[in-house]
Write a structure and sequence with these properties.
Distance between the termini of chain B: 42 Å
Radius of gyration of chain A: 19 Å
Order of helices and strands of chain B: HHHHEEHHHHHHH
Structural class of chain A: alpha/beta
Organism (chain B): Oricola cellulosilytica
Family (chain B): Belongs to the binding-protein-dependent transport system permease family. LivHM subfamily.
Bound molecules: adenosine-5'-diphosphate, magnesium ion
Subcellular location (chain B): Cell membrane
CATH architecture of one domain in chain A: 3-Layer(aba) Sandwich
Distance between the termini of chain A: 40 Å
Largest interface: A-B, 25 and 16 residues
Shape of chain A: globular
Pfam family, one (chain B): BPD_transp_2
Oligomer: heterodimer
GO molecular function, one term (chain B): transmembrane transporter activity
Strand content of chain A: 25-35%
């Protein structure tokens, strides 16, 4: 329908099949706090796309704008549009967005603590009415054998297990696009590795598109195809993940820094940007 | 001391208490899923009883048909109350919402007085025999039905919240609305469902009480008695509501026994639950099963 960019007019090479496109959106909380200031990005079907940026840059807000969860926080898209699979979804209710195939794994996992693992997984399939739910529960258990052993309340799971449950719950919805908000938050390096391994496997095994928000830029760029860097409610840089990995600024500010500081101006900017980490 | 009277009264207490538990569950269900304190709970009971009676006497329906029609009516009524009155109030201060439910209670009282009159009316005989003998106890048929219905409703609640998709969705919504939305659950639907279930079950309870006593606006007193029950059990615990209801029922009848045998005050059973209410509020303000972070009103 409103597929804005015909494949041929895009840069030059391979045609791009866009599943999600966010065009110049502006988001306001509580009617006056402007958080996103004209943000645009596109996500290619079947890819993992990383969205990186400092704390407070507006990453979670971007995901909530896409999923529609913004409304329950008194946030509103005041300009621009979001197109998913050819449909404009900018002002859609979140439950409809889930039904159209977008599932957000929110920051902090948001497990339902007073329910069991199984009940949480069943709820992931809330919008489905096909008969495959039972099989999918087994499928999730095959990805996360540890979850199967946990029969008590989900609130007693460790942070890593809760993250796995959150991802498993997303699998239960069989979405086309998963919006994943900081899956590595609060996890040990070993677990972070495991979680990213699983994200990559999900993408390969099911072809599910993933928009991955992270502060752990190294990890995210290692598994993403394309990356966006945002600052202050806008995209400031984007490119293929391998290019971003080589980018000097990003190396310095996100990937542990190797280059020396060249001028006073850079030092200032370094200090400012160091809070990104 | 009259032991058989005591046993009889405690059996009554248990049966009535189970019914209080059912009404308390309705109250807690609404509080837990929509954060509304429903002061019109008692009027829901009266409405169910009046409507069922109206179907029987004015529409000449057999009891069971009238009962089913009442369930349908109460479903629509519950949804309508939520959609028309409470949905616009989402996000308003707790106190405003409480005022509205108190207003609703008064409005329904007046409306029912106008439509159904203010004299008590009896249900026609539904059971063949007035009472049956269970293990040496003389139990009125209506009480027995009350017990059976209470157990069925409680069992139904358990199965619904444990296994059904919408039961899980309601629990998820009670836990966190935004999380529920992120799973594709419509919070509006859940709210409407909570009011519908509460209205249906209240209606059933009203019919049962109407059959045991008679139908009049004074049935709404059950809606008040539910407060000691839910405060005893904890405002947000469904299991607590049941246990609180049973305790209040037993206590009432025990108070009646003590009063009748020793004190002869004549009204201890009506006030005993409220003494308990005050004592509970003093020593355990969140009830036996409630969570601490809920606000007291
Ligand atoms: N519900 C809200 N109401 C008002 N301001 C908010 C709300 N959520 C986030 N913000 C503000 O929006 C900005 C971006 O937040 P967020 O999207 O959470 O950033 P990030 O996920 O990149 O850390 C922050 O300045 C934050 O204070
Ligand atoms: Mg965030």
């Amino acid at each position: 329908m409103l597929q804005t960019v015909p494949a041929s007019s895009e840069k030059a090479d391979a045609p791009k099949d866009t599943i999600l496109s966010v065009d110049n959106i502006e988001v306001v909380y509580n009617e006056y706090v402007l958080v996103l200031r004209g943000l645009s990005l596109t996500v290619e079907r079947g890819s993992i796309t990383a969205l990186l940026g400092a704390n407070g840059a507006g990453k979670s807000t971007t995901l909530k704008a896409i999923s529609g969860l913004l409304k329950s926080e008194d946030g509103e898209i005041t300009r621009g549009s979001i197109t998913f699979d050819g449909q404009i979804i900018s002002h859609q209710e979140p439950e409809r967005t889930v039904r159209s195939g977008i599932f957000q794994v929110m920051e902090g996992r948001r497990i339902i603590q007073d329910m069991t693992v199984l009940e949480n997984l069943k709820l992931g399939a809330f919008t489905r009415s096909d008969g495959g739910v039972k099989d999918d529960i087994d499928l999730v258990y095959s990805y996360f054998p540890r979850l199967k052993e946990r029969t008590g309340l989900a609130g007693y799971l460790s942070g890593g297990e809760q993250q796995m449950l959150a991802i498993g719950r997303a699998m239960m919805a069989r979405p086309k696009l998963i919006l994943m908000d900081e899956p590595s938050m609060g996890l040990s390096p070993l677990l972070v590795k495991e979680v990213f391994g699983i994200i990559k496997r999900l993408n390969e095994d099911f072809g599910v598109t993933i928009l991955l928000v992270e502060q752990n830029a190294a990890m995210a760029l290692a598994c993403a195809r394309h990356g966006y860097i945002m600052e202050n409610g806008k995209i400031v840089l984007d490119g293929p993940a391998e290019e971003l990995r080589e980018n000097e600024d990003i190396k310095e500010f996100y990937l542990g820094g190797s280059g020396e500081r060249k001028s006073f101006k850079n030092i200032k900017s370094f200090k400012r940007r160091k809070r990104w980490l | 001391m009259n032991w058989s009277l005591l046993v009889q009264l405690l059996a009554n207490g248990l049966i009535v208490g189970m019914l209080y538990g059912v009404v308390a569950m309705c109250f807690v269900l609404i509080y837990k899923s929509t954060q509304v304190v429903n002061f019109a709970q008692g009027e829901f009971l009266v409405l169910g009883a009046w409507v069922c009676l109206w179907f029987i006497t004015d529409m000449q329906m057999p009891f069971i048909v009238a009962f089913l029609f009442t369930l349908v009516f109460m479903t629509l009524f519950g949804i309508m109350i939520q959609v028309v009155i409470l949905r616009p109030l989402i996000g308003e201060p707790v106190v405003s919402v409480i005022m509205v439910t108190i207003g609703l209670s008064i409005f329904l009282q007046a409306l029912m007085n106008w439509i159904f009159g203010n004299s008590a009316e009896r249900f026609p005989q539904v059971f063949e025999t007035e009472s049956v003998n269970v293990a040496g106890l003389n139990v009125e048929s209506a009480y027995l039905m009350s017990l059976v219905m209470s157990v069925l409703i409680m069992g139904g609640f358990y199965l619904f919240f444990r296994f059904s998709k919408y039961g899980l969705a309601m629990r998820a919504t009670a836990f966190n609305q935004q999380t529920a939305q992120s799973l594709g659950i419509s919070v509006r639907q859940v709210f409407a469902l909570a009011w519908a279930i509460s209205a249906i079950v209240s209606g059933v309870a009203g019919i049962i009480i109407g059959m045991v006593n008679s139908v009049s606006s004074s049935l709404a007193i059950i809606g008040i008695k539910v407060f000691p029950a839910v405060i005893l059990g904890g405002l947000d615990s469904i299991v607590g509501a049941v246990i609180g209801g049973i305790i209040i029922g037993l206590l009432e009848n025990f108070a009646e026994f003590v009063d009748g045998q020793f004190l002869n005050w004549g009204n201890l059973f009506t006030i005993a639950p409220f003494y308990v209410l005050i004592i509970i509020l003093m020593i355990k303000p969140y009830g036996l099963f409630g969570t601490k972070d809920i606000e007291r009103i």
